[in-house]
Design goal:
Blueprint (H helix, E strand, L loop, with lengths): L2 H7 L4 E5 L5 E4 L9 E6 L1 H5 L5 H14 L1
Antiparallel strand pairs: 1-2, 1-3
Helix pairs in contact: 1-3
Length: 68
């Protein structure tokens, strides 16, 4: 995820997804049947820990993704 995408979703903790158009969005409930790509569960604490530094959040997510 880009810092911009994280910044847009940070006020909406929950399950984060990417749809077929490439847009990211959040839902309060996990939809196992969703055709969209599940990205992560972003808890309020996870969002708050970055203090608005979405560049750092994106870098941390990229590091995790690189390990898988």
């Amino acid at each position: 995820m880009t810092p911009e995408e994280i910044g847009l979703l940070a006020d909406t903790p929950g399950y984060w997804w990417r749809d077929s158009n490439g847009d990211c969005y959040a839902t309060a409930e996990f939809d196992e049947q969703s055709p969209d790509t599940y990205l992560m569960y972003a808890s309020p604490a996870w969002c708050a820990q970055w203090g608005g530094d979405w560049e750092a959040a994106a870098a941390a997510l990229a590091e995790i993704a690189a390990q898988t």
